TrEMBL record:
Keywords carried by this UniProt record: DNA-binding, Transcription, Transcription regulation
Parts of the chain that traverse the membrane: none
Top-level taxonomic group: Bacteria
Pfam families noted in UniProt: ExsA_N, HTH_18
Taxonomic path: Bacteria, Pseudomonadati, Bacteroidota, Chitinophagia, Chitinophagales
Gene Ontology MF: a single term: sequence-specific DNA binding
All copies of domain HTH araC/xylS-type, residue ranges: 171-269
Entry-linked SMART domains: HTH_ARAC
Protein name per Swiss-Prot or TrEMBL: Transcriptional regulator, AraC family
Length: 270
């Protein structure tokens, strides 16, 4: 069972624990600095795959789609500590500090090598989960500034992610969907991320693809799954979720309906 612990006295710091395997999509409103304590996290972000284990640290940028798979490892459950770097605070920070690089409007996830600076930072926020009174706002700001200064010192390109304050505007729908169709999120989320109302999204989608979003998404996901099964020799259990299906049985039924044979039959040479 998943457990997400947020101390109401220090809301910018939280832990996430999973005693069982978890899979899901994620889009964050704020950038997040994440340290894996135990277990394993696999993520699909754009066309890249990441695997994080105990001791790994990465920055997850705001307004970016990812698929995550959390698992226990070495007899320990998945557990991570997250520091939210709020957009409001980052705006304030960058009005007072020079931005070294232009923001990237499609920022990538950034991974960091092990360093005493990050180790000491996370060690300093663990006690926040024991608080029984409000963490002063000034200290919240100090810890966020400390995190930013550490990141800027160890990664000269970090400003491209942290100083990107762009909001979801109306973007090229066809390009966005071709890059993100494998993410199993509601149409409402797709419409928001392309800067449209749901009604406008469906109308623009029909103009771009001459079919409904549901039909197009199913076809694209099945074609991707077929490629991974036939060309990469992957197993159905390893493919269905990464290609946008909620469970294996639904994937198998849709696959057979579309291609005329099951995923297993494909691997066995039909």
């Amino acid at each position: 069972m998943a457990e997400r612990q947020v101390n109401r006295y220090a809301e910018n710091v939280l832990t996430c624990s999973e005693n069982q395997q978890y899979r899901g999509e994620m889009v964050l409103d704020d950038s997040a600095l994440v340290r894996i304590i135990s277990g394993e996290l696999k993520m699909v972000h754009g066309d890249r795959h990441y695997t994080f284990g105990a001791g790994d640290t990465f920055l997850f940028p705001r307004n970016q789609l990812s698929t995550m798979m959390k698992n226990g490892k070495d007899g320990k459950p998945y557990k991570a500590v997250i520091m939210r770097l709020t957009t409001a605070y980052l705006r304030d920070y960058y009005t007072k500090n020079e931005v070294l690089l232009e923001p990237a409007h499609s920022p990538e996830m950034l991974c960091f090598d092990k360093t005493p600076l990050l180790d000491s930072f996370f060690a300093s926020i663990f006690p926040y989960f024991e608080l029984d009174n409000q963490l002063p706002e000034k200290l919240v700001q100090i810890k966020m500034e400390e995190a930013i200064e550490i990141l800027r010192s160890i990664n000269p390109h970090i400003d491209r992610v942290l100083s990107d304050f762009s909001e979801a505007g109306k973007i090229n729908l066809a390009d966005f969907m071709e890059k993100n169709y494998m993410f199993n999120i509601p149409l409402e989320k797709f419409s928001h991320l392309t800067g449209r109302s749901l009604t406008t999204f469906k109308r623009d989608f029909k103009k771009a693809f001459q079919t409904s979003p549901q039909r197009w998404l199913t076809r694209k996901r099945l074609e991707l799954a077929h490629y991974q099964l036939s060309e990469q020799q992957r197993k159905p259990v390893d493919v269905y979720y990464e290609t946008g299906f909620e469970n294996l049985s639904h994937f198998s039924r849709a696959f057979k309906s579309h291609f005329g044979y099951t995923p297993t039959a494909l691997l066995q040479g039909k």
